[in-house]
Amino acid sequence: MKAGADAGLRRDLFLLDPAVAFLNHGSFGATPRPVFDDYQAWQRELEWQPVEFLIRRFPELMRTARTALAAHVHTAADNLVFVPNATTALNIVARSLRLQPGDEILTTDHEYGAMDRMWRTLCRQNGAVYQPTPVALPITTAEAIVDALWAGVTPRTRVLFVSHITSPTALIFPVRELCRRARAEGILSIVDGAHALGQIPLHLEEIGADFYTANAHKWLCAPKGSAFLYARPEVQSLVEPLIISWGDTAFTPSGRPFLDEQQWTGTRDIAAFLAVPAAIRFWQDHDGDRVRASCHELVRRARAELAAFTQLPPLCPDSPEWFAQMFAVPLPPCDGPRLQADLYARHRVEVPVMRWRDRALLRVSIQGYNSADDVARLLAALADVLPRPGGVSP
Questions:
Q1: What is the pLDDT of residues 317-327, one digit of tens each?
Q2: Is the entire prediction scored with pTM above 0.90?
Q3: Domain identity same for 70 and 184
């Protein structure tokens, strides 16, 4: 099987449909077989003796999993809590802030649509102001991004909200410098790192965000429904539970309200959380740094080939400063949903067509199981289904 020969992992290590050119790892990830086996083993342990598992063993099981994850992202285990996804984490934080009329949330126009909707909904409820600041494309320098965003700061700015790797444009933003400026100005920094964990190295203490969230089920390849919320110790007292349960009266409380209120939210399957250490081991066992480097090289070639095909300029320079294993390229005017549907229905190519600023962007993810053959299949499919100049489809 040739698939995976370029990026470094055999395709059959994953459970993916071999008939599909899967270039959409960024949406939901894909779990390797050994990690999925570990996940199911935890589920079987839960079913063998649910009371033993969920009452007597729960605190230590969760602590062990958090400790492994915390070491991977370079922070203390008590600064993390497991959550099902980054959206949940951001709702926890945003609803905890008790925004007042006139408070401003400064952000960019590259954020994930569901989070735009969350902030706008909360602002309608409490009179706060959601302020997306344009970050123009193509990107030139990190300083230009920081300066463009910082031009939107006012005396009413309470929160800086920014993606580490953006969803629609797949760009790596300079979050460390943004968080540094926010701290200096007394502005809370919230970073949406949904796509970062497993795609780029994470050093949470160096980034310096007040709050940071990332999905483990995307690029780290843990099972679906595994993510974390990080909070600096100095701001953990701000975080209120989205779900009120037993809190510090549950079983064996830790004495840390942030952990006690968030960790136990009622009966749930925690197997996805407990399998996160297995996902970390998977990448250690398979030389993850080498695989990621190989993926980046395949991304570079794919991006260049797609730009040559569309004859449209790239969104950023060709540098790992701006993209890792996921990239977006502009498309000529087209019906994005129809194009995405046709690519899959007619060619079994799974790749999303995003909408950003009234532009269609093709967002391509390259994981270790992908190869140059997948990229060639995408290009051939685009040649078949993408409308030609003048709006006429082949």
A1: 999 999 999 99
A2: yes
A3: yes
